[in-house]
Amino acid sequence: MIARHTYKVEQIANLLKGAATSRIMREGCHPLAEYAEPGKRPPRMWAAGEWKVFLDSEEEVEEAIRYVEANPEKEGKRKQHWSFVTPFAGIPQGGWTTYH
Q1: Helices in the chain by DSSP H: which ranges?
Q2: What is the pTM of this model?
Q3: Residue 99 to residue 38: CA distance in whole angstroms
Q4: What is the pLDDT of residues 20-56, one digit of tens each?
Q5: Residues 20, 33: contact at Cβ < 8 Å?
Q6: C-alpha distance from residue 43 to each of 2, 20, 21, 36 (Å)
Q7: Where are the domains of the chain?
Q8: Rounded distance, CA 29 to CA 95, Å?
Q9: Cβ distance 2 to 12 under 8 Å?
Q10: Where would a tag sit more exposed on the chain, N or C end, judged by fewer CB atoms within 10 A?
């Protein structure tokens, strides 16, 4: 989940995909590496576009947070903790600000 931002969601998704791809390439764990032609990058591992849903109430945001946090454990994986994840502080007084 990404909070409202001055960038369009499509641009944020592209930035995240690019950063993740760079890291995966550096660490040598690209899931499609075996399909790369000699001297070229592997095929893209991301689907085209992005899945975006706009949440317009605190209840919707809190429900989505619970879903995202529980998802790894539902798949038998350990709970995840990331340094860049911050708690939801609620919708600011005056409501959301839309930039685009």
Answers
A1: 9-27, 58-74
A2: 0.72
A3: 44
A4: 999 999 999 999 999 999 999 999 999 999 989 988 8
A5: no
A6: 27, 14, 11, 6
A7: 1-48, 52-82
A8: 42
A9: yes
A10: C
